[in-house]
Amino acid sequence: MNVMKGFQKINKGYSHVFKANHLSLGLVVPIESYIQNSIPTMKNHIERVKLIEQFGFKALWLRDVPFHVPSFGDPGQMFDPFTYLGYLASQTKEIALGIASIALPLHHPVHITKGATTVDQLSGGRLILGIASGDRYDEYPAMGINYADRGEQFRETFNYIRKAQDDFPTFETTHYGRLSGNIDILPKATAHKIPLLMTGYSQQSLEWNAENTDGWMYYPRDIHTQKHTIKKWRELIPNTQDYSKPFMQPLYIDLQEEEDFKPLPIHLGFKTGTKYLISFLQHLQQVGVNHVALNLRFNSSNIENTLELLANKVITQF
Q1: Is the predicted pLDDT of residue 70 greater than 90, yes or no?
Q2: Which of 22, 72, 171, 199 could be cross-linked to 101 through a Cys-Cys bond (beta carbons 3.0 to 4.6 Å apart)?
Q3: Per-domain residue ranges for the chain?
Q4: Its pTM surpasses 0.70
Q5: 284: enclosing H helix or E strand
Q6: Spelled out in words, what is the top-level CATH class assigned to the domain 5-317?
Q7: Each residue of 147-165: b (16+ CB within 10 Å) or e?
């Protein structure tokens, strides 16, 4: 078993967000409340992205949702993630640009690779790419893709993205053609690779996750369960490498101005004041969570006021 080091140095965004034994905060885009209507307005989205960078949030996170599936209830930010991040790269300077996550089987890997490396270059190395096998069943027949094959296609696309960092790569695939070494994929990433963080299990084993990815995005769980999950995963990492890896999760909040407001459960999070939120985040940090992507979809207060409250009361604690 190897002696573990801190997190690997990959690109600027990865190092900006992830530090061992430390928790940072980001926000999921769209930064708006859309409780009544499942489709966001995207109003003031650029102003709010600039504001969260100014307030010290470490990352913004987009989602890859090719189709609006009403039964799922959320079309994400609607804009194509790579096109949108290319634009956001020109509007920001330091904040990491994350995607949580690209559904790998729903795209050809050369398009993911080129989109990701382009954003990484345009932003000066600020891209963090979340990856997933996808969970909206209706999207697969709409694209002529076998839902049952998504685990295999996930692995093949993952390996394709990794291999594409080589000059004139050679790579045989079952689903995506063959690279013979006579053509290249440009641009390359700013670092030796694009950081790839897996969401959930994506039809893979925990051992595969620990060996291959650059970090893990998992869903909100109670503190005890999350501690056990992280411990089990991190115990596997030294079997195959020297560096530890970051763990992150989303959290939906409805932040109240009354700091002592007691928590009430909402979907994948809670309605609460800053006092409980800070305590909860501190517990997450203690059990090994390195980044939390806050989602304000269900927020009932003015968004700008909520962002200012988070900046003045919560971020300062981390």
Answers
A1: no
A2: 199
A3: 5-317
A4: yes
A5: helix 274-287
A6: alpha beta
A7: eebbeebbbbbbebbbbbb
